[in-house]
Each structure stands twice: as structure tokens, then as C-alpha cells.
Amino acid sequence: MRIAAHVLLVLAGASFACKPSDNESAVELGKRAYAANCIACHNPDPTKDGTLGPAIAGSSLALVEARVLRAEYPPGYTPKRSSGLMPAQLFLKPDVPNLAAYLESLAPATQ
Q1: Which of 40, 79, 96, 98 is most buried (CB neighbours < 10 A)?
Q2: What pTM does this model have?
């Protein structure tokens, strides 16, 4: 019984440690979500191609939503690769706006 209570306390503490602080921006939260969920296939540096996934720096919210939540592309978008390997990642739904903010922040500056 004491071991179970200890495990519950540790898990509860871990969940509090993962919550964002008031001063974290969407870009910072998106960077954390990217590092935790995307680098298995995409490069840790989103400006570079990964082992399976292409470079995704500059991806729009529409593209991130379509790929992450529906495993599809937005209308009119031409994929960088034709593999179609990425399945929907529905557990990331709350993180989609932050992921998009992070990836958009890495878009090359236009002049």
C-alpha cells in the first residue's frame, strides 16, 4: 500500500513538472513538443531532412493540422516526399498550435 501511494505521488509530481509556466511562449512549447514527439522521424533540426520525414521548418498551421491530426495534406499542397508514412498523431491535438508556432518561427526570412 505504501509503495502504491509513493508511486502515485511520483506520477502526480511528474505531471506537474510537465506543465508550462506562465512565461513560456507558444514557440517554446512547440519546440518541446517537437523534441518529444517528432525527432524520431524528422531531424532534431527542423530545417534539415530527417531519417524518414522531410525538413518541416516553416510549416503552416493548416499543414501541421492536416498532417498531425488527419494524416493528409491541405488542399493545394504539394508534398515534399511521396512516402505517406506519417500516421495521424491524435494525442498531439492540444500541441498543434504550438508546434505550428515553433515551425513557422523557423521559416527563412523573406525580403
Answers
A1: 98
A2: 0.76
Given its phi and psi angles, is residue 76 left (phi above 0), alpha (psi -120 to 50 degrees) or beta?
left
Q: Which residues of 52-88 are buried (b: 16+ CB within 10 A; e: fewer)?
A: ebbbbbebeeebbbbbbeeeeeeeeeeeeeeeeebee
Integer Cα distance of 28 and 77 in angstroms:
27
Q: Rounded distance, CA 57 to CA 39, Å?
A: 13
Cβ within 8 Å of residue 53, ≥6 positions away: 38, 41, 42, 43, 81, 85, 86
Residue indicated by cell numbers 527542423: 46
Q: Is residue 101 within 8 Å of 26, Cβ to Cβ?
A: yes
Confidence of residue 25 (pLDDT cuts 50, 70, 90): very high
